[in-house]
Amino acid sequence: MTGVSRRRVLGLSGAGLAAGAAAGAGVQRAVSAGRDGPPAEIPFHGAHQAGIVTPVQDRLHFAAFDVVTESRARLVRTLQEWTAAAAAMTAGRPVGGGAVGGPPVAPPDDTGEALGLPASRLTLTIGFGPSLFGRRHLGLAARRPPALADLPRFPGDRLDPARSGGDIAVQACADDPQVAVHAVRNLARLGFGTVAVRWSQLGFGKTSSTTPQAQTPRNLFGFKDGTANIPGTATALLDRHVWAAAGDGAPWMAGGSYLVVRRIRMHIETWDRTSLQEQEEIIGRDKAEGAPAGRARERDEVVLGRMRPDAHVRLAHPGGNGGARILRRGFSFTDGTDGLGRLDAGLFFIAFQRDPRTGFVPIQRSLAPDRLNEYIQHVGSGVYACPPGVGPGGYWGEGLFA
Ligand SMILES: C=CC1=C(C)c2cc3[nH]c(cc4nc(cc5[nH]c(cc1n2)c(C)c5CCC(=O)O)C(CCC(=O)O)=C4C)c(C)c3C=C
Ligand SMILES: [Fe+2]
Hints:
By secondary structure, the chain is α+β, with helices and mostly antiparallel strands. It folds into two domains: 1-129 and 165-202, no CATH class; 154-163 and 207-386, no CATH class. Helices cover 23% and strands 19% of the residues. It has helices at 6-9, 15-23, 27-32, 72-90, 130-133, 177-190, 235-241, 268-271, 276-283, 312-316, 360-366, 398-401, and strands at 59-67, 123-128, 168-174, 195-206, 257-266, 327-328, 331-337, 343-353, 376-386. Strands 1, 2, 3, 4, 5, 6, 7, 8 and 9 form a nine-stranded antiparallel sheet that branches. Helix 4 (72-90) packs antiparallel against helix 6. 45% of the residues are buried. Bound molecules: the ligand C=CC1=C(C)c2cc3[nH]c(cc4nc(cc5[nH]c(cc1n2)c(C)c5CCC(=O)O)C(CCC(=O)O)=C4C)c(C)c3C=C and fe (ii) ion. Residues 312, 316 line the site of fe (ii) ion.
């Protein structure tokens, strides 16, 4: 089945596919074309990992794993198997020999729930947590990047260890939740005996965009979120604020990035009883347009002096943070109720940066007096070093284990 997408295997039609099949060389392009224009397949190989500047997909399945083996060789083998599986799944192909057609007496290589589904712009992004470098038998202590420092405790944090940390993180993003879940499930299955899932989070409704020309999405407080984000095409800003460089203290991370995730509970019932004027003053932008306080349009320049001193945007703005900037890529979540009649809902905050010590940490410290803190609580946390992209024949983290 390798080299052939799931849609083609099942003989699904569609004008693009039919034309592509007839045209031979045109097949790959036809398979890659999404119905509404954007490509359905995001290339897996490249200088940087996909899923960082990639236009944000609709769904998330984030998983943090702990390493359960003491064998470095076994971990490397799993990372090699994961890389091959990730390359296949992001191209819309099943893992290994596929879900069907193999020996009837053995479990299939692929679990099967994505059969017939297109690649759905699936991206898989891997990161290594600080705890991985502390596992003595793996011999990685000297390779820990200085930028992969443990996050400090912030005022108001109520972090649940069962929803924090992890030796290895995988961010799966796709436009179809089944495709994202299938990807994480199959990596977990391949990793059996080497890694075990520590915690995971599903997300829907992106709350940030890396594509300023597209409509800005809204978060669960009803506000446009991502307006002032770093665009995925702003090369100079990305080099300055997102991509790690060879001289940053860990040459194996050059072209990679550091990921900070925070599970932030949003007390939406309290927010919903707050007046519109108060909501807008807390954020520092208006709800309808997303315009900064005192301005008319979403993209108008922020005038910090027009906002309350404790407005979220004023405190988070680079102007008050020594120019610190991060690339936000978060998703909303709702995970049932908390037993007190309130939805367990919020923002799964995701930010990529060149160095969390000069990105997330100072910004989050500045947010201490944020009025928004009355309506939110950080309950989960993680920081991970995401290595650069892999070339054909390479594997995730090969620079680290070299
Ligand atoms: C430490 C980083 C940040 C956390 C944590 C955070 C949580 C959080 N944010 C919103 C809603 C909005 N944030 C907005 C802007 C904004 N937020 C951060 C950082 C964190 N937010 C930054 C750097 C910025 C951009 C500031 C600027 O440069 O102007 C906005 C406005 C629209 C936008 O620019 O994105 C909203 C709305 C919530 C609800 C939340 C926690 C649940
Ligand atoms: Fe924010």
